[in-house]
């Protein structure tokens, strides 16, 4: 018998479930994909039932294929894609597809929130009410689907819905709750002032718990459905970026997290809750009790690469396409890519900006375009790092996680653009490992998250900046920074054109 915990990483493209022992050994991993629907420009939706089915497929495979014994699975915890709005009726049935973090249809509601509350909103939540966050989505439903809003009795985030289906109990942890922009960060409770301002019943907001808190055992129904035992306990878990930071050992302000998932994230540990970046960077409760983190988000990081691959190399192997960038040069033979293909979150909070390739030349080949995509995503990360550096932060190490960390070339590009040492994890499942760590601490296997970090978190490869590349990338980044102001009016016009013509 090997006691283990499961870390469930509910991402945007797939769910990955990792089984981890008390010594931090990952003994099995399974994953299952689910679709993202974009029925109109700016819309991004998923069916919450797909998350439940995919997670169950992964768990069933762990039991049947990897031979995990249900009685050995002592605890489960969760890492979840953030901000997605799931609305339940009085019978806890899902009322509409979930509106995800990369759904930007709520620009009007974002403006209305700022018009009504302005700076006071940022004081309370430490964030701007950007389209990606939950409150503007909720107000969009209130305005555009009043029948659904009237039936809504509970608001959940993606991983909270998944946990609810596995346990029958409703809860939301603080790290995900900050991402709703309805939490008062100083008071650590739902902001009555914000709820009153927008006439939202407090009863929609679920009970708040800490990430390491027990959220009930697996229900009899879910045990019968999945093969799990009803003795397995669940622990609340956290926002994927909070869990990614836990799983990557980001426990001091000199280490920075670089995550290339569907989105991209540059994240810094924040010991104090009075820090306020005025909403240029996000500020969130951590999954570590009484700690916080800030981050800047590139909306389409891995998503840009996926788009390129699906559009121009659909039948080819993903890894081979990424590797082909090695045939190009630093700077992709003079080609730049700006990854604003679904709008941008930071440092430009602009739902209507769109992406571009700049400098296309008759000599360019497909591998130059692949290289430009990889580099453009990291130039956008460099814009985020620059926000911290401008405020006096200094970083010794960048820890690279997410699907993008599968590519050594992409990690070297990060080291060269950041001009900082980049390290990878022994296992790239940062958020899944972080979730498993929360279960391990919740079960009492470790006193604190930092005790668990010492045992669970191991680094693998080190990528040092190459001075000749650093110099070239500094010049290229200065050119890249001209893309946003130079293309803003043109791409806004094109988005307006698509809206007018209802083009897909
Ligand atoms: N072999 C690879 N090399 C580089 N990037 C990859 C590779 N495979 C997948 N990716 C990137 O990883 C991203 C998915 O990362 P992941 O962390 O799993 O995302 P999410 O949590 O959003 O589902 C994809 O969007 C893709 O661009
Ligand atoms: O919106 C954010 C953070 O604010 C995103 O980071 C989501 O949390 C989705 O994460 P991935 O699926 O890309 O991991």
Automatic annotation (TrEMBL):
EC number of this enzyme: 2.7.1.17
Membrane-spanning parts: none
Gene3D superfamilies according to UniProt: 3.30.420.40
Important for activity (site feature) positions: 9
Protein keywords: ATP-binding, Carbohydrate metabolism, Kinase, Nucleotide-binding, Transferase, Xylose metabolism
Family annotation (SUPFAM superfamilies): Actin-like ATPase domain
MF terms in GO: ATP binding; D-xylulokinase activity
Residues annotated as the enzyme's active site: 240
Residue ranges annotated for the Carbohydrate kinase FGGY C-terminal domain, each copy included: 258-442
Function description: Catalyzes the phosphorylation of D-xylulose to D-xylulose 5-phosphate.
Family: Belongs to the FGGY kinase family.
Name of the protein in question: Xylulose kinase
Organism of origin: Agrilactobacillus composti DSM 18527 = JCM 14202
Phylogenetic lineage: Bacteria, Bacillati, Bacillota, Bacilli, Lactobacillales
């Amino acid at each position: 018998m090997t006691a283990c915990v499961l870390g469930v990483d509910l991402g945007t493209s797939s769910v990955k479930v990792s089984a981890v022992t008390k010594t931090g050994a990952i003994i099995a991993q399974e994953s299952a994909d689910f679709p993202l629907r974009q029925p109109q420009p700016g819309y991004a939706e998923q069916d919450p039932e797909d998350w439940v089915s995919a997670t169950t497929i992964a768990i069933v495979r762990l039991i049947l294929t990897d031979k995990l014994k249900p009685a050995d699975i002592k605890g489960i915890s969760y890492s979840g894609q953030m901000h997605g709005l799931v609305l339940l009726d009085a019978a806890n049935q899902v009322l509409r597809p979930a509106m995800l973090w990369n759904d930007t249809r709520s620009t009007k509601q974002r403006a209305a929130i700022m018009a009504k509350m302005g700076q006071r909103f940022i004081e309370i939540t430490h964030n701007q009410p950007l389209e990606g966050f939950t409150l503007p989505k909720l107000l969009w439903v209130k305005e555009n689907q009043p029948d659904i809003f009237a039936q809504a009795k509970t608001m959940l985030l993606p991983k909270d819905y998944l946990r609810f289906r596995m346990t029958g109990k409703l809860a939301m942890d603080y790290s995900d709750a900050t991402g709703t922009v309805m939490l008062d960060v100083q008071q650590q409770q739902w902001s009555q002032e914000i709820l009153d301002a927008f006439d939202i019943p407090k009863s929609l907001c679920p009970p708040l718990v800490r990430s390491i808190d027990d959220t009930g055992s697996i229900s009899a129904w879910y045990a019968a459905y999945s093969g799990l035992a009803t003795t397995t306990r669940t622990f609340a878990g956290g926002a994927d970026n909070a869990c990614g930071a836990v799983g990557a050992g980001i426990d001091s302000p000199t280490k920075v997290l670089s995550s290339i998932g569907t989105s991209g994230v540059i994240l810094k540990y924040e010991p104090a809750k009075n820090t306020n970046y005025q909403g240029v960077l996000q500020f969130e409760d951590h999954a570590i009790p009484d700690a916080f983190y800030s981050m800047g988000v590139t909306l389409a990081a891995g998503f840009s690469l996926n788009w390129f691959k699906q559009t121009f190399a659909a039948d080819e192997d993903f890894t081979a396409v990424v590797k082909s960038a090695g045939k190009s040069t630093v700077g992709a033979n003079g080609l730049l890519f700006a990854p604003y293909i679904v709008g941008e979150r930071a440092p430009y909070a602009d739902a209507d900006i769109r992406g571009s390739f700049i400098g296309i030349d008759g000599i360019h080949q497909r591998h130059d375009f692949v290289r430009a995509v990889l580099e453009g995503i990291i130039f956008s990360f460099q814009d985020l790092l620059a926000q911290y550096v401008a405020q006096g932060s200094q970083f010794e190490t960048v820890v690279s996680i997410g699907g993008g960390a599968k590519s050594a070339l992409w990690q070297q590009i990060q080291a060269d653009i950041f001009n900082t040492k980049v390290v990878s994890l022994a296992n790239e499942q940062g958020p899944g490992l972080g979730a498993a760590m929360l279960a391990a601490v919740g079960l009492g296997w470790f006193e604190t998250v930092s005790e668990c970090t010492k045992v669970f978190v191991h680094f693998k490869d080190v990528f040092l900046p190459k001075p000749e590349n650093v110099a070239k990338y500094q010049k290229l980044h200065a050119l890249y920074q001209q893309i946003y102001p130079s293309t803003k009016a043109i791409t806004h016009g094109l988005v307006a054109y698509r809206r007018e013509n209802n083009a897909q």
